[in-house]
């Protein structure tokens, strides 16, 4: 019997093309959800995604990770240190995505643990992220990592 090894590691320069492709898939998938049309224009990774990912790859205050099954990259995550008004910092997970066919086996969990650990090493007082309304699986995923809602953004469409 063959065992499958899922895990996470910091992204390497050689992973950039795969991460860019995953970022495009994530944006396309989330844009279709409730709240996704505005999310994709306000909170999503800006276009060109490659350029913003390169900045995160190179920044001291950001980390990009990849999730793997065996040696195949099947997900990615990114976190950035954000300074608060009082000078303390939080780690903001702006990206966390796993290919649909690789979900439910621990890849996302491995990436999230790596991102949280990094934020702690950077002295962050907490970790934030965003789940779109009605995206129960993402909300549940974050809750398994001890994350709870601290604000709710409301919106009224004028289109």
Notable traits:
five-stranded mixed beta sheet, Aminopeptidase, about 160 residues, alpha+beta, about 35% helix
Compose a concise summary of this entry.
With 159 residues, the chain is α+β, with helices and mostly antiparallel strands.
Profile the largest sheet: 5 strands, mixed
- Average of per-residue pLDDT values: 95
- Summarize the helix and strand pattern as letters: EHHHEEEHEH
Query: Which strand-content bin applies to the residues?
Result: 15-25%
**CATH topology term:** Aminopeptidase
Number of helices in the DSSP assignment: 5
- Say how many strands there are: 5
Low-confidence stretches: none
Overall tally of domains: 1
What is the second-level CATH architecture? Answer: 3-Layer(aba) Sandwich
CATH class: Alpha Beta
Terminal-residue CA separation: 55 Å
Helix share, percent? 25-40%
Give me the secondary-structure category: alpha+beta
What characteristic shape results from the CA principal axes?
globular
């Amino acid at each position: 019997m063959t065992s499958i090894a899922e895990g996470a590691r910091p992204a390497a320069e050689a992973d950039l093309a795969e991460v860019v492709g995953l970022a495009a898939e994530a944006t396309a998938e989330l844009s279709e959800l409730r709240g996704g049309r505005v999310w994709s224009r306000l909170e999503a990774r800006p276009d060109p995604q490659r350029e913003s990912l390169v900045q995160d790859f190179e920044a001291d205050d950001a980390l990009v990770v990849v999730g793997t099954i065996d040696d195949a990259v099947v997900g990615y995550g990114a976190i950035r240190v954000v300074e608060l008004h009082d000078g303390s910092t939080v780690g903001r997970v702006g990206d966390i995505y796993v290919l649909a066919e690789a979900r439910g086996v621990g890849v996302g969990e491995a990436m999230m643990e790596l991102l949280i650990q990094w934020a702690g090493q950077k002295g962050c007082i907490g970790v934030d992220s965003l789940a779109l309304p009605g995206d129960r699986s993402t909300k549940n995923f974050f809750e398994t990592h001890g994350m709870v809602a601290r604000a709710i953004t409301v919106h009224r469409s004028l289109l």
